[in-house]
Each structure stands twice: as structure tokens, then as C-alpha cells.
Amino acid sequence: MELIKIATAGSVDDGKSTLIGRLLYETGALKTDQIQHIEEKSAARGFGYLDLSLATDGLLTEREQGITIDVSHIFFSTPKRRFIIADSPGHVEYTRNMVTGTSNAQASIILLDARKGVIEQTKRHFFITQLLGIKQIIFAVNKMDLVDYDQTVFEDIKATLTGLVDKHGKDGVAYHYTPVSALYNENIVSRSKKLAWHDGEPLLSLIESLPVDQNQAYDGAFQIQYVIRPKREELHDYRGFAGNVRSGTFSVGDAITIRPSGRKSIIKRIEKYGAAVEKVNAGENATILLVDEIDASRGDSILNAQANVNQSKNISATFCWMQDTPMSTGNKYWLQQGVQRSLVKVQNIRSKMDLEALAQSEAKELTLNDIGKGSLALAQTLTTKAYKENPALGSFILIDPQTFNTAGVGFIETA
Amino acid sequence: MSILKQLEEESVYIIREVAGQFDNPCLLFSGGKDSITLLHLAQKAFAPATIPFPLVHIDTGHNFPETIALRDKLVAEHGLRLIVGSVQDDIDAGNVVEEKGRHASRNSLQTTTLLNTIEKYKFDACMGGARRDEEKARAKERVFSVRDDFGQWNEKLQRPELFDMLNGMIHNGENVRVFPISNWTELDVWHYIRDEKLEIPSIYYAHEREVFKRDNQWMPVSEYVNVADKDERQQTSVRFRTVGDMSCTAAVLSEATELDTIIEEIGGSNFSERGARMDDKRSEGAMEERKKVGYF
């Protein structure tokens, strides 16, 4: 069975929690005691139907306010597939959560309210999926019950969306458009008679069949997380570089270079959890042992001959800012790329995105929830590549050196 | 790659990040199936070396003896370091007061002992076997969850976690709770235990036990539970789905003595896992309230 992670986002009232609650309910992910709980709460609030949004609204504060305020991870499965939904709130001030939820997803559902159509939130979420390179995007037009399942309403919204996609969309991305009513289960698990005019799979079948995207980059790049040195007599000379294959593949016998030191060696042995293997692929953990006794430590990269990457001390990137204190020229941060850290200094901020107009405008600083472009100078050399060519080497976070909070995320443009 | 292998890869990566980023981490070990899974993953992460951090057990004094026996066996077999934080000691020292009444449990008293133990040993990261599918408040938990000086969890201060990058930078006195098996489900844990042939406490398997019915749950009769005269007692075949404090863990009626049949039963169960935990049922948001004051 396959696992797919899907990000959802939408505005405060477009029924996202209800949609997810509906998917949980219809796939049998809600157990009897949980349904009972929802029934009791729905009745207590005087609703004549099951308020399925109660299934996901996890935090007390948001149950009090009736809104979602953070990224929530929700699980369900069908016989075909396992799903993890990263549900992020849709208020303007929580763009950072949308970026966070989307960063681990292979697909995105952008929810719209049929009565409101395309609003700023829709554009914002759409832009974020483009920035993060999500390859499968579903525009789900919800609350069709409130517009009498009217085809022209849907077609008008779809026309606006395709206009957006034509202008700002990316090649190699699949865009899907589907009308639903999460509240009344129309076009969610089966084709809807009320939406008979819609020629397309119901939402659940659609997400069951979306292709799952992997990092296709060939660059053999491995990052050291931890050096394993057993304190035992019989393993006296054992020095295993434990870490994660960021991209490409590694095999026993590969000639490698360690960065930033530049030392070269050959892979003597690859282990997975103590057992020898011949080869490891992108995303896998491994422990690499080298022919030579070379010093390398946490954060260093091991690169093979297939790695066509850059050694950079200056990078230009698109940033999404996630904290109250703005990002401006001269500020210093810790940059973390994978598990490697370096101090950085902001060289300049050039522009920021107006998410209403979807256009760049000049800017001197980035404030909370801004997305914009700028450059960094690094205290030490990093192994990098443009995000669109290799997401694992092209993404990083910035950490505030005073609060240690994750202050922002960056996507490398040119290294 | 199978889902279980994917989950294993993700968890090992997280555990290695803990060893790489923190000076003095520990693994919170309750002896239940989740912490046994976590321990096994940690052993894989550092093979052939032994795990570079101790196990910490917060002992309520009301544990199932079977759990303690297995804990001690694992510690001896693998040469692990075990630190026990005792709730009884905190009661004796007057740091906490035992709950009274019919529903008395030491479950919530654990928090004080946990925080005291973290402070005493100056742990900067504590790994635990909590999963996002357990409870709604858990679904929002980060993999690295930063706690302040008072051990408090504040949802507004949780750091965004982007891609697989984990930010464990903290100030002196703060610590991080880490949840390497966040994305596992209850069934994943059971399948993994079967595939990896892990030993779990015998109370997970069906056995004869004296139980009594309270609020539609089968509670084990023990010296730690206040059984009222009107409570109906009976001897029957049960197993436990979670292993918490004896005073708050309900049993399910079952004949399943093999992992295969347990997995079948759980896959077909109409009740959620924490449905058998009385401590969550006390109020809406019970888990969230406890997490705010530093509960694991």
C-alpha cells in the first residue's frame, strides 16, 4: 500500500474541517465512541445534522472559537491508499502554517466556498503550492448545496481559476477542478446525482489515484547526522557515518568527496541498522563506512560522482517569513539546510509578493507572512542546488539567534 | 518501500537528530508497546553501538508487574542505562497529593515526577512514543515540541516544521519533547511488533483476570483501584490495549493470545484506542489540559 500526504487549506468558513470530518467518517476512520461524541456535541449545539468538523478541531481554544488555528495531522485510509492530511488554517495571518503543512505534502486540496469563489486566500494558497513545487493540485468548490448545485456557478469559478493557472501555473503540474458538498456528502465518495452535470471522479477516488511524486534529482548527496563509534574492543576501528540520502543513490565502491573539506575516498561498506546492503536510495537512512580513515562530522556532505551541485557562500532565494520581527538587511540568522547549520547575514531584500495581485513589488524588509526575494552571505560553504532542480538541497530554514524560533523558510534560486 | 519501512526510516532519522542536536537526551520508557517500539528503533539507529542515551521510567507505583518485569529484562539484555522517577517518592516528599475517591488515579501525578526528573538530570530532550492518531490534541503536536522552564506546552509557541528539518535550538533550562513515531498508527505499531518479533508485556495478550464493570469499561481488580461493593466483579478472559497506570487502564474482553488475532480484533474494533483510557474521559480537552501543565 502507498502513503500520500495531502495538504489542505481554505478560509475560515469554507468548510474544510467538515470536508475532512466527512472523509474520516466515510472511510470508517471514526470509531463508535468518537461518532457518539460528535452526535452528542452536535445535538447539544442544536444542529439537525452531524457536525463533522468536530472530528478534527483539536484544540480547546479553537473549539471555543469554532475555528482551526494550527497545522493538524489527520490519518485515514482506503483499501487502496493511506492518507495523511496536513490541515492548515486559512486565515491571512497564518500563511506560515500553510507553507509548513504544504512542505511535506505531495498534493494539495485548495478549498473554495461556492458562494464566494476565488478570494485572496485562494490565490495565496495557490501561490504557495507553486512556490513549493506541488505537482498535484485539486481545487474543490465546496458548499455547492448553498448555490443549488448550479453548474454555471461552478463553471464561472473554474474559469477564474484556469485564468490564474494559465498566468502563474507551472509546467508538469496537474490541476483538478471538482464541485462538492462536504456537509451533504455530494461528490465526495460517489458521483452525485445533484452534480450529474460534472464529468469527473468524486473527490475520494481522485485522491486515491493521484501519482505520488519523489525527488527525481540524480545528485548523489548524503548528509551526516551522527558518527557511530562503538566503544567495544572488537569494533575498535569502526567509524560509521550515519545519515540520510538527500538525493540520488549510493553504492558500495562509489568514489566520494566529503564537503566542505574536499577529502576524497571510496565507500567500503553501506549498512542499514547494522546489516550490510549494496545500495541506498534517496530518502533512505544509511551508515556509510569509508576505505580511508577520514575525519568528517555532523552536517558534512558525502557526494558521489553523479552530484552536480554547487559549493556556495552566497545564495539568492525566495523566503517566506514566519515571525513577528522582520527580516531586513544586515540581520543575522542561523541557516539550517537538512541537518547542517551556518550563520548567515542578510545581504539584501529585493522584492515581495503582493498576494492579491500576484505581482512582485519592491521591498526593503519582509514581515510576518510575507513572501519575497533576497540574498544571504554564509559564514561557511554549503552544498546547494536550486530548489526546483533538487528540493532537498535547495530548501532551508532560518533560525532567530535570540529566540531560536524558526523565523522563516527559504527556497534557493541561484546558488 | 512499504509504509512500515517508510515510517521506520522517518523515525530513525528523527532519533539520530536527537542524538546529533542535544547534549543530554533521554528516552521516556513506560514499558508499553509504543515505547518498546521506540526503543527498538533507537537500537537500530545506532547499531552496532549501544544507544547513546538512558531510558527514563516514570513509575507511578501502580504499574502492571508484567510491564516492570519486561522493562528490567530489556535493560539487562541490552546493557541499557535506566533512570526511574518515582511518583511514590514525590508523594512521600509531599510534592504531590494522592487523589481520593472512587476514580482516584496517579496518572496526573506523573507530571510532577517527570518534570522533577528532567530537572534533576538536566535532560534537554525527552523522546516519547506518543502518536498523532491517539487523540485530537496530539494531532497538532510537533515532532520537536519545545517546553518552557515550567515544562509547559503552548500551542502558540510551537515552531513550524518544514520539510524534514528539525530545529532543536533551545535556551538553557528549556527542553524539547520529541515524538519519533508521530506518524505511526496503532495498527502500524502492532504490525511492526509482529514483523520485528518484539517482546511485549504479557498483559497485551488475552489472559484470565478478575475485572469489574465501571462506566461500561472493564477495569482490572487490584489493590490500586477503589472497587465499590456494588461494582459487579467477574473472572474472564481479557487483554489490555494500552498499558498505563493500573488505576486508569481498562481491559477489553478478548480470547486473542496471538499477535495475528489481536491485529484482527483491533482492525475491526469500533472503539478508539484511548477510549479505554479513563484519564481522557474526564472532560472535553482532558489531554490538552494535561499537556499544558507538562504532561507527557
Q: What does this 3D model show about the protein?
A:
The complex is a heterodimer of chains A (415) and B (296). The two termini of chain A are 38 Å apart. Chain A is of the alpha+beta class and 415 residues long. Chain A is globular, with a radius of gyration of 24 Å. Chain A folds into three domains: 2-209, Rossmann fold (3-Layer(aba) Sandwich); 221-304, Elongation Factor Tu (Ef-tu), domain 3; 310-414, Beta Barrel (Elongation Factor Tu (Ef-tu), domain 3). Helix content of chain A is 19%, strand content 38%. In chain A, a hairpin with a 2-residue loop joins β18 and β19. In chain A, the strands form five sheets. Chain A has a six-stranded mixed β-sheet with strand order 2-3-1-4-5-6, sandwiched between helices. A six-stranded antiparallel barrel of chain A has the order 7-8-14-11-10-15. Chain A has helices at residues 16-26, 32-44, 60-65, 95-103, 120-131, 151-168, 203-209, 391-394, and strands at residues 2-9, 72-77, 81-87, 107-113, 136-142, 174-179, 221-228, 240-247, 249-251, 255-259, 264-272, 275-277, 279-281, 285-290, 301-304, 310-321, 327-328, 332-337, 340-354, 359-362, 365-366, 371-384, 395-399, 406-414. Chain B has 296 residues and is α/β, with parallel strands linked by helices. Chain B folds into two domains: 3-190 and 285-292, HUPs (Rossmann fold, 3-Layer(aba) Sandwich); 201-280, no CATH class. Chain B is globular and about 55 Å long. The model of chain B is unreliable at 280-284 (pLDDT under 50). At the A-B interface, α2, α3, β2, α4 and β7 of A face α1 and α2 of B.
